[in-house]
Amino acid sequence: MKELILVWLLCCVPLFSFADNNITTGGDNSFNKSQEISQDQTKSLSSRAGAHRQHLKEWTVIMYWDGDDHEIQSDLLNDFTEMAIAKVGSTDQVNMVIQFDRYPGESRYGGWSITHRFFLTPGMEPTEANAIKDWGDRQGGGRETDMSDPDVFRDFIKWAVRNYPAKRYALIVADHGFGWKGLAIDNTNYQRAMSVKQLRQAIEKSHVHFDLLSLDACLMQMIEVAHELWHSGVDILVGSEANGRTWPYAEILQSIMQNPRMSAEEIGQIIVDRYIGSHPEDTGITLSVVEVGRINALASAVKELSLAILNDSPLEVVKDKAAEVMKAINNAVIYKKNALDWQSAGGISVYFPGDINVMASPPPELLYFYKTPVVNFPGDSLWHDLLTYVWDFNNLNAHRFMLIDIRKNMKPFDLMENDKVDLYDLCNSIMNYPSP
Predict the structure, then answer these.
(1) Residue 197: strand, helix, or coil
(2) I need a surface site. Which of 11, 87, 343, 422 has the fewest CB within 10 A?
(3) Tens digits of per-residue pLDDT, 283-323?
(4) Which helix (H) or strand (E) holds 420?
(5) Nearest to 202, CA basis, from 142, 156, 240
């Protein structure tokens, strides 16, 4: 789903939270000393809680499809048609729910152009007759929504979990992607998009622990995105470093139907395998699976590399720090597959704008947007400082010229913007840079 639009958005105290899918309320405790329960009662309550969990389905797959665009809408309608033909849908072990927003001008399935929710059953087509008629908010069912609005996103998550609980939850967001700049553009709502920080805040405010988050959008497998999600309650993140193609939803969901006891890591691997396998002619695609809990260690390693360069440490020290980053990438990226053009890619990219020359000014996004109010990684890792160091033409430090030389010879994932490169390849180039 290739993106040619550049969108800028500048950019909670939970009342309750889900821990292992069990609700814990805020405020005072339900029991005090005058309400003590016996050991037998405790065992009985525990037994009933365990029995309730045993009766839950294994997975609820929550799909947030922002088709408010001609190209994306066509792709997602094709996906829905393939799912209907393949008899993909909910089972006694898996719930599948979709919020699908469409765009005017497409006649298929009645040509509706608002947002509908579906509890997917085998053979279901995306007609208004098959849509959920009551969203439980006293406003009825289908309506126009701004899919870039984090509140709309959060409300759908909470509705899905409330109505279709399970032992584990997978969330898939599908639309255009802009990397650290955001995703989910809504063309019937002033072309707004959701920032990565808003994505993270919406997930946090939903109070749902997601075993798996898959971003079916271009350029989203960046360290900036993964780091933003580090403490949001997401375990596994699936995404692409490169511009992407359509995902084979029918094949992916069929695999979950056939083996509902798969772990989040196994489903992530299935998504990668099915995606790469469905586009054998495309040499420019990537997909990887990241363990989000390991991203903070990677960000810390990047910070150490930044400090070594900014402090003008000896080149061997800088190379050692680059090696530590590579080690941390291998630890965080637990599965990946790359097409021919990206065989050496390590599974996670980083912002590093190119076209560095003495006549050019630093990119406006680096000066004004690549900062903590938009995304946390640039400040936490000192990567913003490192990039401004590279763009300082009064700086005659040898490390700066090394980075300029390396970046000039790196292929970016997005040729138009020329600002996203593979982090592993970058550090490998530092490691192999000739000593003076």
Answers:
(1) helix
(2) 343
(3) 999 999 999 999 999 999 999 999 999 999 999 999 999 99
(4) strand 420-422
(5) 156
In sequence order, the 6+-apart residues with CB closer than 8 A to the CB of 239 are 214, 215, 217, 220, 221, 225, 287, 288, 290
* Cβ-contact 186, 68 below 8 angstroms: yes
User: What ranges make up the beta strands (E) of 182-259?
Assistant: 183-186, 192-194, 210-216, 234-239
Do 348 and 329 meet the contact criterion of CB atoms below 8 Å apart?
Answer: yes
Alpha carbons 294 and 50: distance in angstroms, whole number: 30
Please name the helix (run of DSSP H) or strand (run of DSSP E) that holds residue 152, with its range, or none.
Answer: helix 150-163
Residue type, 362: P
Joined tokens for residue 355: 């076209």
φ, ψ of residue 216 to 5 degrees: the values are: -85, 75
The whole-angstrom separation of Cα 348 and Cα 295 is 11
Whose tokens are 């995304």? That residue is 375
Distance, in Å, from the CA atom of 183 to the CA atom of 316, rounded to the nearest integer, reads: 39
> What tokens does 337 get?
């597959």
Q: How many angstroms separate the CA atoms of 186 and 144, rounded?
A: 11
What DSSP element (H or E) covers 277?
helix 264-277
Say whether pLDDT at 355 is over 90: no
Amino acid code (one letter) for 13: V
Q: Do the Cβ atoms of 332 and 423 come closer than 8 Å? A: no
- Local confidence band at 86 (pLDDT 50, 70, 90 cut-offs): very high
> Does residue 427 register a pLDDT over 50?
yes
pLDDT given at position 1: 45
User: Residue 92, by phi and psi: left (phi above 0), alpha (psi -120 to 50) or beta?
Assistant: alpha
**Nearest C-alpha neighbor of 309 from the set 392, 424, 420, 221:** 392
* Backbone region of residue 298 per phi and psi (left: phi > 0; alpha: psi in -120 to 50; beta: other values): alpha
Per-residue pLDDT tens digits for 320-330: 999 999 999 99
Tally of residues, the chain = 436
Q: What are the start-end ranges of the E strands in 265-407? A: 286-291, 333-338, 349-351
What the chain holds in terms of domains, given with CATH numbers, is 54-292 (3.40.50.11970), 294-331+350-431 (no CATH)
Across all residues in the chain, what is the average pLDDT? Answer: 89
**Structural element, H or E, at residue 211:** strand 210-216
Instruction: Round to whole Å and give the CA distance between 263 and 335.
Output: 14
pLDDT of residue 55: 87
Which residue is it, tokens 């970058």?
426
d(CA 241, CA 426): 14
